[in-house]
Write a structure and sequence with these properties.
Helix content: 25-40%
Strand order of the largest sheet: 6-13-11-9-7-8
CATH architecture of the largest domain: 3-Layer(aba) Sandwich
Radius of gyration: 20 Å
Strand content: 15-25%
Length: 300
C-alpha cells in the first residue's frame, strides 16, 4: 500500500478512494470523519508527528489531502514526543490563511519523505474542461458578471480569503468567508426571503465594486450596470497561485438548490480549476431548476 488519504469531512474522500485500483490507507483527523469511509488510522493534530512515522513504517510513499476540516486548537496535554518539535510550525499554520496553512502542513509531509498527490491527479474526471454542461446557457450579462467574479476572487486570493463570490450586474452581493460557499448562499437566501438583500444600500461594498470595475474594464462595468435586478451568478475559482495539491474549490449536487434558493440564474466555475462531485446529478439538478452551469475558460 503506497497511497494514504488524509481525510476530512464530506464525500470527496470516498470518491477518491473508490477511484483507486488498490484501496488506500484511510487516515482521519479525529472529529472530521468522512462520509461512507471507515478509518484505518485516526489521529489528532497533536499526534501528527507519530502519524508521519507510522505512514513511512507502513510503506506509504504518497498522500492525498482531501475533505473539509476546520482548524482545531492545539491541546498541549495531547502532544506526543514526535509532534512536539513541530508545534511552532503547526501554530503558524493555524494562524495563516487557508492556502498558507495547507502549504505548511504539506511541507511537513514532504520533509518526512512523502510526496503529495492532488485529487485531480488521482481522479482527473472531477475537474471538467471548458463548456456549458447544462441545457440552459448563459446570457450576455452573465459574461460581464463572470469577469467581475474573476477579478473579485483574484483580489480575495491576495488576502488568502475565499474562492467564491456572488455577482449580480455590476455588484458583488457576497464573498465567501471561512464558513464556506453554502453558508454564503444561505445568507443570501435568507436576505431574499426577508427583503433585506438590497446590496446597493451598502455604500462600502458598492464603492469597492465600482473601484474594482474601473481598474479592470470600465466598459464591462458600465455594461454590467444595465443588467436586470433578477438573476446573477455564483462564481467559483482557485485563488491565483494556489497550490493545487489541496483545497481546490468544489461544487456538488446540492449546490444548484442553494443557488436557486438565493435567486441566482446560474453557476460559473473556472475550467480546470474547480471540481464537480456527482457531475451527472449536479447537471440534472441544474436542468430541473432552470439554471445554467458554465465551465468558463479563465480570462475570456
Amino acid at each position: 500500500m503506497t497511497l494514504a488519504l488524509i481525510c476530512g469531512q464530506g464525500r470527496l474522500p470516498r470518491i477518491v478512494a473508490d477511484a483507486q485500483d488498490q484501496r488506500p490507507l484511510i487516515c482521519v483527523l479525529n472529529g472530521f470523519e468522512p462520509d461512507g469511509l471507515t478509518a484505518d488510522l485516526t489521529f489528532h493534530l497533536e499526534t501528527l508527528g507519530t502519524l508521519l512515522e507510522t505512514l513511512k513504517a507502513r510503506g506509504v510513499t504518497r498522500v492525498c489531502l482531501c475533505g473539509a476540516i476546520r482548524r482545531p486548537p492545539i491541546d498541549p496535554a495531547r502532544l506526543d514526543a514526535k509532534t512536539a518539535p513541530l508545534v511552532p510550525r503547526l501554530q503558524a499554520a493555524l494562524t495563516s490563511g487557508d492556502d498558507g496553512a495547507l502549504r505548511i502542513v504539506m511541507d511537513l509531509f514532504h520533509e518526512a519523505g512523502l510526496s503529495i498527490a492532488s485529487v485531480d491527479d488521482l481522479v482527473p474526471d472531477l475537474v471538467p474542461v471548458e463548456g456549458v454542461l447544462s441545457l440552459k446557457t448563459y446570457a450576455p450579462q452573465n459574461t460581464v458578471e463572470a469577469r467581475l467574479g474573476e477579478r473579485t476572487v483574484a483580489a480575495m486570493g491576495v488576502r488568502d480569503a475565499g474562492q467564491a463570490c456572488v455577482v449580480r450586474g455590476d455588484s458583488v452581493l457576497a464573498r465567501e468567508d471561512a464558513a464556506g460557499t453554502d453558508a454564503m448562499l444561505r445568507r443570501l437566501a435568507r436576505d431574499a426571503a426577508t427583503g433585506n438583500g438590497d446590496f446597493l444600500t451598502n455604500p462600502i461594498n458598492t464603492a469597492s465594486d465600482m473601484f474594482g470595475g474601473l481598474l479592470g474594464d470600465a466598459t464591462d462595468w458600465l455594461t454590467g450596470g444595465e443588467s436586470a435586478s433578477e438573476g446573477g451568478i455564483l462564481f467559483k475559482a482557485p485563488k491565483p497561485g494556489q497550490d493545487r495539491r489541496a483545497d481546490l474549490p468544489v461544487i456538488g449536487a446540492s449546490t444548484p438548490d442553494s443557488v436557486a434558493a438565493a435567486g441566482l440564474a446560474g453557476i460559473v466555475i473556472e475550467a480546470g480549476g474547480v471540481m464537480i462531485l456527482d457531475r451527472a446529478k449536479t447537471v440534472v439538478r441544474c436542468d430541473t431548476l432552470g439554471l445554467f452551469l458554465w465551465v468558463r475558460e479563465k480570462g475570456i
